[in-house]
C-alpha cells in the first residue's frame, strides 16, 4: 500500500480539494487552506477512494492503514484515526459525511462525492518552483577602437566638456543598478509571509474536552495518538478554564511538551500561554 501511495499523483475531490497521498496532504484550491494527515489516515482514505462505490470492512481498512503492524491496532485507535480524518476533510471545506459509516458492514465514500485523478500536468504545475525573473544589470558600453590619426597629440588640450559628461553617465548607470538590486532584495526578504505557529497541528478528539470545555491539538509526528490520549488522562489539570492546548512529543523519548494558552494562538496572537515539559512514562 505504501508503494501504491508514492506512485499516486493525487485526486481532485468535489472539483475543489486536492488529495496528494505522497505528500499526505489535503489542499483547497479556492481558499488555499491546506492540512496534513497522519500516515494511517492517508492510507485509509486512499483505500476508500480506490474502492469508491463499495463498502470497505473495518479489517480491510486496518490492514490498509497499518500494514504489517495492524495486529496491535485497537478499535479505539482505528476510530480515532477516522475521526481525525473526518475533521481534516471538514477543515478544508468538504462535507463531514464524505466518509459514511455503514452499520455492521464498514465504511465507504458518500455517493455524492466526485472523484477525479489529477493529471500529470496539474501535478507538475503544483510541484514546480516559482519562477524568479533574473535581475538585469545594464552592461557598460564597450569602448570602440579609434584610429591613430584621431588620437590627440601628446600635450594637446582635450575638450573640457566630454570627460565630465562621460563620468556622469557612468555614475547614473551605476546608481540605477544599485537601486534595482536593492528593490529586488527587499522584495525577496520582506514579501514572504511565515507560516502561522501551530498551523500544522491536528485536533485531538476525546471525552476529556467535553468534560473540561477545552480544545486540544497535537503535532502529527506519531503514527498512533494513544500516547497523547494517555498523557491527557494523567494530566487533567491542564484542561480547564476553556484553555487551548498544543501537545508535542515523541513516545521514543518519553517527553511531552504542552503549550497551555488562554485561547487559540493561531487566531489570537495576544493569547497568554505557558509551557509544561513532562517526562512521561505510559503505565
Description of the structure:
There is one protein chain. The chain has 283 residues and is an alpha+beta fold. It folds into 2 domains: 2-127, Winged helix-like DNA-binding domain superfamily/Winged helix DNA-binding domain (Arc Repressor Mutant, subunit A, Orthogonal Bundle); 202-279, no CATH class. Helix content is 34%, strand content 18%. The protein is built from 8 helices and 12 strands. It has a 5-stranded antiparallel β-sheet with strand order 4-3-2-1-7, covered by helices on one side. Helix 2 packs across helix 3. The longest helix is centred in the middle third of the chain and has 29 residues, at 162-190. It is extended. It starts with a helix and ends with a strand. Residues 8-111 form the OmpR/PhoB-type domain. InterPro entries: OmpR/PhoB-type_DNA-bd, Sig_transdc_resp-reg_C-effctor, WH-like_DNA-bd_sf. It comes from Jejubacter calystegiae.
CATH-defined topology of the largest domain? Arc Repressor Mutant, subunit A
Low-confidence stretches: 130-137
Structural class of the helices, strands and pairings?
alpha+beta
Could you give the count of β-strands? Answer: 12
> Major sheet: order of its strands?
4-3-2-1-7
Rg over CA atoms, rounded to whole Å, is: 30 Å
Number of domains: 2
CATH class of the largest domain: Mainly Alpha
Shape: extended
Largest sheet: 5 strands, antiparallel
- Listing every helix as H and every strand as E from the N terminus to the C terminus, the arrangement reads HEEEEHHHEEEHHEHEHEEE
Enumerate how many helices there are, as a single number. 8
Protein name: Transcriptional regulator
Transmembrane segments: 171-190
GO molecular function: DNA binding
DNA-binding region: 8-111
Amino acid at each position: 500500500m505504501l508503494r501504491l501511495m508514492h506512485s499516486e499523483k493525487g485526486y481532485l475531490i468535489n472539483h475543489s480539494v486536492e488529495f496528494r497521498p505522497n505528500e499526505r496532504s489535503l489542499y483547497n484550491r479556492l481558499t488555499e487552506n491546506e492540512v496534513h494527515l497522519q500516515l494511517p489516515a492517508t492510507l485509509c482514505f486512499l483505500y476508500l477512494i480506490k474502492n469508491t462505490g463499495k463498502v470497505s470492512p473495518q479489517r480491510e481498512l486496518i490492514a490498509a492503514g497499518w500494514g504489517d503492524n495492524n495486529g496491535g491496532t485497537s478499535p479505539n485507535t482505528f476510530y480515532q484515526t477516522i475521526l481525525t480524518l473526518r475533521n481534516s476533510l471538514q477543515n478544508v471545506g468538504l462535507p463531514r459525511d464524505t466518509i459514511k459509516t455503514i452499520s455492521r458492514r464498514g465504511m465507504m465514500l458518500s455517493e455524492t462525492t466526485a472523484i477525479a485523478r489529477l493529471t500529470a500536468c496539474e501535478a507538475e504545475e503544483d510541484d514546480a518552483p516559482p519562477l524568479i525573473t533574473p535581475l538585469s544589470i545594464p552592461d557598460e558600453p564597450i569602448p570602440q577602437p579609434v584610429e591613430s590619426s584621431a588620437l590627440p597629440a601628446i600635450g594637446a588640450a582635450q575638450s573640457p566638456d566630454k570627460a565630465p559628461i562621460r563620468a556622469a553617465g557612468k555614475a547614473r548607470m551605476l546608481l540605477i543598478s544599485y537601486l534595482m538590486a536593492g528593490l529586488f532584495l527587499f522584495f525577496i526578504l520582506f514579501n514572504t509571509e511565515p507560516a502561522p505557529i501551530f498551523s500544522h497541528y491536528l485536533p485531538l478528539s476525546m471525552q476529556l474536552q467535553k468534560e473540561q470545555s477545552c480544545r486540544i491539538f497535537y503535532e502529527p509526528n506519531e503514527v498512533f495518538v494513544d500516547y497523547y490520549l494517555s498523557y491527557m488522562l494523567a494530566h487533567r489539570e491542564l484542561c480547564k478554564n476553556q484553555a487551548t492546548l498544543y501537545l508535542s512529543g515523541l513516545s521514543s523519548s518519553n517527553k511531552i511538551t504542552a503549550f497551555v494558552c488562554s485561547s487559540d494562538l493561531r487566531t489570537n496572537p495576544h493569547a497568554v500561554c505557558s509551557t509544561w515539559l513532562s517526562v512521561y512514562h505510559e503505565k
